[in-house]
Amino acid sequence: MSGLLMRAEKENAFILHQRAYSETSIILDIFSENFGRLSIIAKGIKKQNSKKGSVLQQFQPLLLSWAGKSELKTLTAAEPDSDMFVMSPGSMYCGFYINELIVRLLHQHDPHPELFIYYKDTLKQLSQGITEKVLRLFEKYLLIEIGYGVILDHDINNNKINEDKEYYYVPESGPVKTEEVNLEKPKISGKSLLAFAHENLDDKDVLAEIKALMRVLIREQLGGKPLHSRKLMNNYISLSR
Amino acid sequence: MAESKAIVKLIEALSHLPGVGPKSARRMTYFLLERDREGARDISVAITEAIEKVGHCQQCNNLTEYDICEICSSKSRDSKKLCIVETPAELQSIEQASIFRGLYFVLMGHLSPLDGIGPEELGIDKLEVLLDNGEVDEVVLATNLTVEGEATAHYISELVRKKGILATRIAHGVPVGGELEYIDRNTLTEAFTGRRQM
After folding, report:
1. ipTM
2. pLDDT tens per residue, range A168-215
3. Which residue, among A15, A16, A17, would best test binding to B if mutated, counting the most B CBs under 10 Å from its CB?
4. Where residue A136 sits, what CATH number does that domain have?
5. What global pTM score does this model have?
6. Is position A1 within any domain?
7. A-chain residue closest to B152, CA distance
8. For A44, nearest residue in chain B (alpha carbons)
9. Residue B58 maps to a domain
Protein backbone atom coordinates (compact mmCIF):
# COMPACT_ATOMS: atom_id res chain seq x y z
CA MET A 1 0.00 0.00 0.00
CA SER A 2 2.38 2.69 -1.14
CA GLY A 3 1.29 6.05 -2.44
CA LEU A 4 0.40 9.27 -0.72
CA LEU A 5 2.32 10.45 2.25
CA MET A 6 0.34 9.66 5.34
CA ARG A 7 0.93 11.66 8.45
CA ALA A 8 -0.56 11.43 11.93
CA GLU A 9 0.04 13.89 14.73
CA LYS A 10 -0.25 13.04 18.41
CA GLU A 11 -2.51 10.11 17.88
CA ASN A 12 -3.78 8.21 20.92
CA ALA A 13 -2.12 4.83 20.76
CA PHE A 14 -0.77 1.84 22.64
CA ILE A 15 2.12 -0.42 21.78
CA LEU A 16 0.97 -4.01 21.39
CA HIS A 17 4.31 -5.53 20.62
CA GLN A 18 7.82 -4.50 19.71
CA ARG A 19 10.67 -6.30 18.09
CA ALA A 20 14.27 -5.41 17.35
CA TYR A 21 14.85 -4.39 13.75
CA SER A 22 18.49 -3.42 13.53
CA GLU A 23 21.20 -2.58 16.02
CA THR A 24 19.39 0.52 17.23
CA SER A 25 15.87 0.48 15.74
CA ILE A 26 12.69 -1.35 16.67
CA ILE A 27 9.46 -2.10 14.88
CA LEU A 28 6.34 -1.34 16.88
CA ASP A 29 3.00 -2.99 16.38
CA ILE A 30 0.61 -0.33 17.65
CA PHE A 31 -3.12 -0.01 18.27
CA SER A 32 -4.25 3.54 17.58
CA GLU A 33 -7.59 5.18 18.14
CA ASN A 34 -8.32 6.31 14.60
CA PHE A 35 -6.10 4.14 12.42
CA GLY A 36 -6.39 0.79 14.16
CA ARG A 37 -3.41 -1.53 14.11
CA LEU A 38 -0.25 -0.32 12.36
CA SER A 39 3.42 -1.15 12.08
CA ILE A 40 5.78 1.71 12.81
CA ILE A 41 9.55 1.79 12.82
CA ALA A 42 11.22 3.71 15.63
CA LYS A 43 14.70 4.57 14.47
CA GLY A 44 17.69 4.95 16.73
CA ILE A 45 15.63 4.08 19.77
CA LYS A 46 18.17 1.83 21.41
CA LYS A 47 20.94 4.42 21.37
CA GLN A 48 22.20 5.43 24.78
CA ASN A 49 20.95 9.01 24.58
CA SER A 50 17.56 8.23 23.08
CA LYS A 51 14.82 9.59 25.31
CA LYS A 52 12.01 7.85 23.46
CA GLY A 53 13.12 4.40 24.60
CA SER A 54 11.64 4.65 28.06
CA VAL A 55 8.42 6.19 26.73
CA LEU A 56 7.81 3.44 24.22
CA GLN A 57 6.55 0.70 26.51
CA GLN A 58 3.55 -1.57 26.24
CA PHE A 59 0.43 -0.87 28.32
CA GLN A 60 1.08 2.88 28.56
CA PRO A 61 -1.21 5.47 26.98
CA LEU A 62 0.89 7.31 24.40
CA LEU A 63 0.61 10.14 21.91
CA LEU A 64 2.42 9.01 18.78
CA SER A 65 3.17 10.87 15.57
CA TRP A 66 4.26 9.15 12.40
CA ALA A 67 4.65 9.67 8.68
CA GLY A 68 5.35 7.55 5.66
CA LYS A 69 4.25 6.44 2.22
CA SER A 70 4.72 2.73 2.59
CA GLU A 71 3.00 0.13 4.73
CA LEU A 72 5.64 0.60 7.41
CA LYS A 73 5.41 4.12 8.86
CA THR A 74 8.21 5.98 10.59
CA LEU A 75 7.78 7.26 14.11
CA THR A 76 8.39 11.01 14.29
CA ALA A 77 7.45 11.78 17.90
CA ALA A 78 6.34 10.00 21.04
CA GLU A 79 5.21 11.25 24.39
CA PRO A 80 3.28 9.78 27.29
CA ASP A 81 -0.39 10.70 27.45
CA SER A 82 -2.35 10.82 30.70
CA ASP A 83 -1.19 9.10 33.87
CA MET A 84 0.74 5.94 33.33
CA PHE A 85 -0.67 2.59 34.32
CA VAL A 86 1.42 0.76 36.87
CA MET A 87 1.01 -2.90 36.01
CA SER A 88 1.59 -5.59 38.62
CA PRO A 89 3.21 -8.79 37.32
CA GLY A 90 -0.17 -10.54 37.24
CA SER A 91 -1.82 -7.74 35.28
CA MET A 92 1.13 -7.66 32.88
CA TYR A 93 0.46 -11.27 31.86
CA CYS A 94 -3.24 -10.43 31.37
CA GLY A 95 -2.09 -7.50 29.23
CA PHE A 96 -0.03 -9.81 27.02
CA TYR A 97 -3.15 -11.91 26.58
CA ILE A 98 -5.39 -9.10 25.36
CA ASN A 99 -2.58 -7.80 23.14
CA GLU A 100 -2.23 -11.22 21.56
CA LEU A 101 -6.00 -11.35 21.00
CA ILE A 102 -5.88 -7.98 19.22
CA VAL A 103 -2.89 -8.91 17.08
CA ARG A 104 -4.51 -12.21 16.11
CA LEU A 105 -8.06 -10.97 15.54
CA LEU A 106 -7.89 -7.42 14.19
CA HIS A 107 -6.62 -6.63 10.70
CA GLN A 108 -4.08 -3.87 10.17
CA HIS A 109 -5.47 -0.45 9.13
CA ASP A 110 -9.00 -1.26 10.33
CA PRO A 111 -10.02 1.51 12.73
CA HIS A 112 -11.85 0.41 15.89
CA PRO A 113 -12.17 3.65 17.89
CA GLU A 114 -14.74 2.24 20.34
CA LEU A 115 -12.70 -0.85 21.04
CA PHE A 116 -9.70 1.40 21.55
CA ILE A 117 -11.45 3.27 24.35
CA TYR A 118 -12.50 -0.04 25.81
CA TYR A 119 -8.95 -1.38 25.57
CA LYS A 120 -7.65 1.62 27.47
CA ASP A 121 -10.27 1.17 30.16
CA THR A 122 -9.44 -2.54 30.38
CA LEU A 123 -5.76 -1.82 30.96
CA LYS A 124 -6.67 0.73 33.60
CA GLN A 125 -8.78 -1.79 35.45
CA LEU A 126 -6.06 -4.44 35.11
CA SER A 127 -3.61 -1.99 36.67
CA GLN A 128 -6.07 -1.63 39.55
CA GLY A 129 -5.91 -5.36 40.13
CA ILE A 130 -9.23 -6.42 38.59
CA THR A 131 -8.50 -9.30 36.24
CA GLU A 132 -10.95 -12.14 35.48
CA LYS A 133 -14.04 -9.96 35.11
CA VAL A 134 -12.28 -7.42 32.94
CA LEU A 135 -10.82 -10.07 30.64
CA ARG A 136 -14.21 -11.69 30.02
CA LEU A 137 -15.81 -8.37 29.16
CA PHE A 138 -12.94 -7.42 26.88
CA GLU A 139 -13.29 -10.74 25.05
CA LYS A 140 -17.00 -10.04 24.59
CA TYR A 141 -16.42 -6.54 23.22
CA LEU A 142 -13.68 -7.75 20.92
CA LEU A 143 -15.89 -10.49 19.43
CA ILE A 144 -18.74 -8.03 18.92
CA GLU A 145 -16.35 -5.55 17.32
CA ILE A 146 -15.13 -8.05 14.73
CA GLY A 147 -18.73 -8.77 13.81
CA TYR A 148 -19.17 -11.93 15.78
CA GLY A 149 -22.20 -11.37 18.00
CA VAL A 150 -22.34 -12.94 21.41
CA ILE A 151 -26.04 -13.66 21.96
CA LEU A 152 -26.93 -13.64 25.62
CA ASP A 153 -30.52 -12.50 26.12
CA HIS A 154 -32.47 -14.81 23.81
CA ASP A 155 -32.11 -18.34 22.47
CA ILE A 156 -31.95 -19.42 18.83
CA ASN A 157 -35.75 -19.66 18.73
CA ASN A 158 -35.91 -16.03 19.81
CA ASN A 159 -37.30 -16.88 23.25
CA LYS A 160 -36.08 -14.89 26.23
CA ILE A 161 -33.42 -16.63 28.29
CA ASN A 162 -34.90 -18.36 31.33
CA GLU A 163 -32.79 -17.90 34.43
CA ASP A 164 -33.60 -21.38 35.75
CA LYS A 165 -32.87 -23.34 32.56
CA GLU A 166 -29.72 -24.89 31.16
CA TYR A 167 -28.52 -24.06 27.66
CA TYR A 168 -26.01 -25.21 25.09
CA TYR A 169 -24.17 -22.44 23.33
CA VAL A 170 -23.91 -23.10 19.61
CA PRO A 171 -21.09 -20.94 18.21
CA GLU A 172 -22.28 -18.58 15.41
CA SER A 173 -25.94 -19.22 16.39
CA GLY A 174 -26.57 -18.76 20.08
CA PRO A 175 -28.02 -20.52 23.12
CA VAL A 176 -30.41 -23.45 22.83
CA LYS A 177 -32.24 -25.11 25.74
CA THR A 178 -30.69 -28.44 26.75
CA GLU A 179 -34.15 -29.96 27.16
CA GLU A 180 -34.89 -29.36 23.47
CA VAL A 181 -31.87 -31.02 21.87
CA ASN A 182 -28.84 -33.07 22.71
CA LEU A 183 -25.60 -31.47 21.54
CA GLU A 184 -21.89 -31.80 22.09
CA LYS A 185 -21.63 -28.10 22.90
CA PRO A 186 -20.59 -26.13 25.97
CA LYS A 187 -23.33 -26.01 28.59
CA ILE A 188 -24.19 -22.80 30.38
CA SER A 189 -26.95 -21.79 32.79
CA GLY A 190 -29.56 -19.17 31.92
CA LYS A 191 -28.46 -17.34 35.05
CA SER A 192 -24.90 -16.96 33.74
CA LEU A 193 -26.04 -15.85 30.28
CA LEU A 194 -28.19 -13.11 31.76
CA ALA A 195 -25.50 -12.04 34.20
CA PHE A 196 -23.03 -11.71 31.32
CA ALA A 197 -25.59 -9.74 29.31
CA HIS A 198 -25.88 -7.30 32.23
CA GLU A 199 -22.11 -7.38 32.81
CA ASN A 200 -22.63 -8.47 36.36
CA LEU A 201 -19.84 -10.96 36.96
CA ASP A 202 -19.42 -10.95 40.72
CA ASP A 203 -20.64 -14.52 41.24
CA LYS A 204 -17.77 -17.02 41.14
CA ASP A 205 -19.77 -19.82 39.49
CA VAL A 206 -21.10 -17.45 36.83
CA LEU A 207 -17.57 -16.26 36.11
CA ALA A 208 -16.32 -19.83 35.74
CA GLU A 209 -19.12 -20.69 33.28
CA ILE A 210 -18.52 -17.54 31.26
CA LYS A 211 -14.82 -18.27 31.14
CA ALA A 212 -15.48 -21.73 29.68
CA LEU A 213 -17.91 -20.26 27.14
CA MET A 214 -15.59 -17.48 26.01
CA ARG A 215 -12.70 -19.89 25.70
CA VAL A 216 -14.70 -21.90 23.15
CA LEU A 217 -15.87 -18.84 21.23
CA ILE A 218 -12.38 -17.33 21.08
CA ARG A 219 -10.89 -20.63 19.98
CA GLU A 220 -13.36 -20.74 17.08
CA GLN A 221 -12.11 -17.36 15.91
CA LEU A 222 -8.44 -18.23 16.22
CA GLY A 223 -8.78 -21.25 14.01
CA GLY A 224 -7.15 -23.71 16.35
CA LYS A 225 -3.74 -22.06 16.81
CA PRO A 226 -3.13 -21.80 20.56
CA LEU A 227 -2.55 -18.53 22.39
CA HIS A 228 0.99 -18.38 23.77
CA SER A 229 0.10 -15.73 26.30
CA ARG A 230 -2.65 -17.86 27.84
CA LYS A 231 -0.23 -20.71 28.36
CA LEU A 232 2.30 -18.34 29.90
CA MET A 233 -0.34 -16.77 32.14
CA ASN A 234 -1.44 -20.20 33.40
CA ASN A 235 2.18 -21.22 34.02
CA TYR A 236 2.74 -18.05 35.98
CA ILE A 237 -0.43 -18.46 38.05
CA SER A 238 0.47 -22.01 39.02
CA LEU A 239 3.99 -20.88 39.94
CA SER A 240 2.88 -17.96 42.08
CA ARG A 241 0.34 -19.96 44.06
CA MET B 1 31.43 -3.57 -16.45
CA ALA B 2 29.67 -6.04 -14.21
CA GLU B 3 31.27 -6.82 -10.88
CA SER B 4 32.88 -10.22 -10.58
CA LYS B 5 30.87 -12.94 -8.94
CA ALA B 6 33.28 -13.20 -6.03
CA ILE B 7 32.96 -9.48 -5.31
CA VAL B 8 29.16 -9.58 -5.40
CA LYS B 9 29.24 -12.55 -3.07
CA LEU B 10 31.46 -10.74 -0.60
CA ILE B 11 29.23 -7.66 -0.68
CA GLU B 12 26.20 -9.83 0.06
CA ALA B 13 28.07 -11.59 2.85
CA LEU B 14 29.11 -8.33 4.49
CA SER B 15 25.52 -7.06 4.33
CA HIS B 16 24.69 -9.65 7.01
CA LEU B 17 26.48 -7.47 9.55
CA PRO B 18 24.17 -5.32 11.70
CA GLY B 19 24.05 -1.72 10.54
CA VAL B 20 25.70 -2.54 7.20
CA GLY B 21 23.66 -1.94 4.06
CA PRO B 22 24.67 -2.78 0.47
CA LYS B 23 26.44 0.56 0.05
CA SER B 24 28.73 0.24 3.07
CA ALA B 25 29.24 -3.43 2.24
CA ARG B 26 30.55 -2.45 -1.21
CA ARG B 27 32.85 0.16 0.31
CA MET B 28 34.23 -2.41 2.74
CA THR B 29 34.69 -4.96 -0.03
CA TYR B 30 36.70 -2.61 -2.23
CA PHE B 31 38.72 -1.39 0.71
CA LEU B 32 39.70 -4.92 1.69
CA LEU B 33 40.52 -5.99 -1.86
CA GLU B 34 42.42 -2.87 -2.84
CA ARG B 35 44.19 -1.88 0.32
CA ASP B 36 44.15 -4.49 3.04
CA ARG B 37 44.29 -8.02 1.71
CA GLU B 38 46.21 -9.13 4.79
CA GLY B 39 43.42 -7.81 7.02
CA ALA B 40 40.84 -9.52 4.85
CA ARG B 41 42.61 -12.84 5.28
CA ASP B 42 42.70 -12.32 9.05
CA ILE B 43 38.98 -11.61 9.10
CA SER B 44 38.20 -14.71 7.10
CA VAL B 45 40.34 -16.93 9.33
CA ALA B 46 38.92 -15.39 12.52
CA ILE B 47 35.33 -15.87 11.38
CA THR B 48 35.90 -19.48 10.35
CA GLU B 49 37.63 -20.25 13.62
CA ALA B 50 34.95 -18.59 15.74
CA ILE B 51 32.13 -20.38 13.92
CA GLU B 52 33.85 -23.72 14.37
CA LYS B 53 34.92 -23.33 17.97
CA VAL B 54 32.43 -21.08 19.76
CA GLY B 55 29.29 -22.65 21.13
CA HIS B 56 27.13 -22.25 24.21
CA CYS B 57 28.28 -23.09 27.72
CA GLN B 58 26.42 -26.17 28.93
CA GLN B 59 25.84 -24.59 32.30
CA CYS B 60 25.07 -20.90 31.66
CA ASN B 61 24.44 -20.62 27.87
CA ASN B 62 27.11 -17.96 27.44
CA LEU B 63 29.22 -18.09 24.28
CA THR B 64 32.41 -20.05 24.83
CA GLU B 65 35.03 -22.27 23.20
CA TYR B 66 34.71 -24.85 25.97
CA ASP B 67 31.93 -27.16 27.19
CA ILE B 68 31.81 -25.17 30.42
CA CYS B 69 32.81 -21.51 30.07
CA GLU B 70 35.67 -19.85 31.91
CA ILE B 71 33.37 -18.02 34.30
CA CYS B 72 31.43 -21.14 35.29
CA SER B 73 34.61 -23.17 35.81
CA SER B 74 36.54 -20.43 37.63
CA LYS B 75 37.42 -21.23 41.25
CA SER B 76 37.62 -17.56 42.26
CA ARG B 77 33.98 -16.78 41.50
CA ASP B 78 31.23 -16.88 44.09
CA SER B 79 29.06 -19.82 43.06
CA LYS B 80 26.39 -18.84 45.61
CA LYS B 81 25.31 -15.82 43.53
CA LEU B 82 23.69 -16.29 40.16
CA CYS B 83 22.93 -13.37 37.84
CA ILE B 84 20.29 -13.77 35.11
CA VAL B 85 20.80 -11.74 31.92
CA GLU B 86 19.09 -11.75 28.52
CA THR B 87 22.11 -11.80 26.19
CA PRO B 88 25.86 -12.56 26.17
CA ALA B 89 26.51 -8.89 25.32
CA GLU B 90 24.77 -7.82 28.54
CA LEU B 91 26.84 -10.34 30.50
CA GLN B 92 29.93 -8.74 28.99
CA SER B 93 28.80 -5.25 30.07
CA ILE B 94 28.42 -6.44 33.66
CA GLU B 95 31.82 -8.14 33.50
CA GLN B 96 33.44 -4.96 32.25
CA ALA B 97 31.99 -3.03 35.17
CA SER B 98 33.50 -5.74 37.44
CA ILE B 99 30.87 -5.31 40.11
CA PHE B 100 29.63 -8.87 40.17
CA ARG B 101 31.81 -11.82 41.11
CA GLY B 102 29.22 -14.59 40.99
CA LEU B 103 28.06 -16.81 38.13
CA TYR B 104 25.64 -16.08 35.31
CA PHE B 105 22.78 -17.63 33.42
CA VAL B 106 22.07 -16.26 29.92
CA LEU B 107 18.47 -16.61 28.74
CA MET B 108 19.26 -15.72 25.11
CA GLY B 109 16.14 -13.55 25.02
CA HIS B 110 13.07 -12.77 27.12
CA LEU B 111 9.53 -14.06 27.49
CA SER B 112 7.55 -12.80 24.53
CA PRO B 113 4.22 -14.56 24.07
CA LEU B 114 3.46 -12.69 20.85
CA ASP B 115 6.63 -14.13 19.33
CA GLY B 116 5.83 -17.55 20.75
CA ILE B 117 8.74 -17.40 23.20
CA GLY B 118 7.83 -19.04 26.49
CA PRO B 119 9.79 -20.49 29.43
CA GLU B 120 10.85 -23.59 27.47
CA GLU B 121 12.38 -21.55 24.66
CA LEU B 122 14.46 -19.67 27.24
CA GLY B 123 15.83 -22.88 28.74
CA ILE B 124 14.23 -22.29 32.13
CA ASP B 125 14.41 -26.05 32.78
CA LYS B 126 18.20 -25.81 32.51
CA LEU B 127 18.14 -22.97 35.03
CA GLU B 128 16.06 -25.11 37.38
CA VAL B 129 18.63 -27.90 37.23
CA LEU B 130 21.29 -25.35 38.17
CA LEU B 131 19.22 -24.09 41.11
CA ASP B 132 18.43 -27.62 42.26
CA ASN B 133 22.15 -28.35 42.63
CA GLY B 134 21.78 -26.46 45.86
CA GLU B 135 24.73 -24.10 45.84
CA VAL B 136 22.99 -20.88 44.84
CA ASP B 137 21.56 -18.74 47.67
CA GLU B 138 20.76 -15.56 45.69
CA VAL B 139 19.51 -15.03 42.15
CA VAL B 140 20.07 -11.50 40.82
CA LEU B 141 17.58 -10.68 38.06
CA ALA B 142 19.32 -8.38 35.58
CA THR B 143 16.89 -8.65 32.67
CA ASN B 144 16.10 -5.46 30.79
CA LEU B 145 13.78 -2.78 32.08
CA THR B 146 11.23 -3.39 29.35
CA VAL B 147 7.79 -4.87 29.86
CA GLU B 148 9.00 -8.26 28.60
CA GLY B 149 12.15 -8.04 30.70
CA GLU B 150 10.05 -7.33 33.79
CA ALA B 151 7.64 -10.16 33.01
CA THR B 152 10.62 -12.49 32.61
CA ALA B 153 12.12 -11.34 35.91
CA HIS B 154 8.85 -11.91 37.76
CA TYR B 155 8.38 -15.32 36.24
CA ILE B 156 11.85 -16.45 37.28
CA SER B 157 11.55 -14.84 40.72
CA GLU B 158 8.45 -16.94 41.46
CA LEU B 159 10.33 -20.05 40.44
CA VAL B 160 13.35 -19.10 42.54
CA ARG B 161 11.25 -18.27 45.60
CA LYS B 162 9.51 -21.64 45.37
CA LYS B 163 12.89 -23.26 45.82
CA GLY B 164 13.54 -21.22 48.95
CA ILE B 165 16.22 -19.09 47.28
CA LEU B 166 16.45 -15.28 47.56
CA ALA B 167 15.52 -13.42 44.37
CA THR B 168 16.70 -9.83 43.90
CA ARG B 169 16.13 -7.32 41.09
CA ILE B 170 18.69 -4.76 39.96
CA ALA B 171 17.70 -1.19 40.95
CA HIS B 172 16.31 1.21 38.37
CA GLY B 173 16.04 4.97 38.30
CA VAL B 174 18.10 8.06 37.68
CA PRO B 175 21.32 7.34 35.75
CA VAL B 176 24.65 8.54 37.10
CA GLY B 177 25.20 12.12 35.92
CA GLY B 178 21.48 12.47 35.19
CA GLU B 179 19.59 15.66 35.95
CA LEU B 180 16.05 15.26 37.21
CA GLU B 181 14.68 17.98 34.96
CA TYR B 182 15.48 15.96 31.84
CA ILE B 183 14.35 12.57 33.07
CA ASP B 184 11.18 11.05 31.68
CA ARG B 185 8.18 10.26 33.84
CA ASN B 186 8.49 6.47 33.77
CA THR B 187 12.06 6.58 35.03
CA LEU B 188 11.23 9.14 37.71
CA THR B 189 8.36 6.98 38.93
CA GLU B 190 10.73 4.02 39.23
CA ALA B 191 13.28 6.18 41.02
CA PHE B 192 10.74 7.30 43.60
CA THR B 193 9.17 3.91 44.22
CA GLY B 194 12.64 2.44 44.63
CA ARG B 195 14.04 5.12 46.97
CA ARG B 196 16.09 4.02 49.94
CA GLN B 197 16.99 5.24 53.41
CA MET B 198 20.13 7.36 53.81
Report:
1. 0.82
2. 888 888 888 888 777 777 789 999 999 999 998 899 999 999 999 999
3. A17
4. 1.20.1440.120
5. 0.84
6. no
7. A89
8. B19
9. no
